Amino acid sequence: MQLVNLRSFKQKVRHNKKAFKRFLSKIERRPPKGLDKLAEKIDAEVWQEVDCLSCANCCKTMSPTFTKADIKRIAEFLDMTSQQFIDKWLYFDEKDGDWMNKSQPCQFLDPKTHYCRIYEVRPADCAGFPHLKKKKMVEYIHVHQQNVEYCPATYRMVEKMMEQLEN
Question: pLDDT value at position 132?
Answer without folding.
Answer: 80
